[in-house]
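The data are quoted verbatim for completeness:
=====
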Amino acid sequence: MFQGFPKETVKFLKALRANNTKEWFENHRADYDEYYVKPAVELINALTPVAEALDPPHQGIAKINKSLRRIHRDTRFAKDKTPYNTSMHIEFWTGDHPNKSAGTHLVLSHEHFGFGAGHWAFEGEGLDRYRAAVQTKSEMSALKEALESAASVGCVPGEPALKKVPRGFDADSPAAAFLRRKGIVVMSQQRDGFDDRVFGPDAVAFMTEILTAVAPLNGWIRRVVD
């Protein structure tokens, strides 16, 4: 059973940040396996039954490139050519694909533990469905309830992507702030320091609280948009 991340995980991430090269990584692959992959897989296995029991059910697959994002960066079109991500990224998702549906994200870096939920950007008909929904009283009420639940664990939306309401929509609408969004994402606001529960036997209970609180937002997106 998962008993919290070992402090060596943070030490590994901090060292990787300072030595982000293939040579260093290969020389420390044993640390990667022991302090990065192993605890991540244990955590995913512990949380998957929790995720599956949520409404809506969330998928968890304890494999690299499934619930555990790859540590290797895709640098083909990036200016930053460093080869490795220096944060651990874990995801539980609601649809058929981790990157194409609403989900909950847990991120461990060298300096903090963060979490969030939602869907970054709606596309095509999904965006149309979202914009129609936020202009109805019932769906706006349901969305606000979901956001209040997420806020109970410190997850709140960032600034809207658009400065103005899209053409063809009423700038004075009660839904104006939501119409300026292309997706709905909530994130924890702490950017340094750790909650001690991340490193101890209460880690699963702590993260269960997070998954439960943000699930209504993922559910709203799944039902209305996806």
User: Anything to note?
Assistant: The chain has seven helices and five strands. The radius of gyration is 19 Å. Residues 7-224 form a domain with the BirA Bifunctional Protein; domain 2 fold (CATH 3.30.930). The first strand starts at residue 88 and ends at 93.
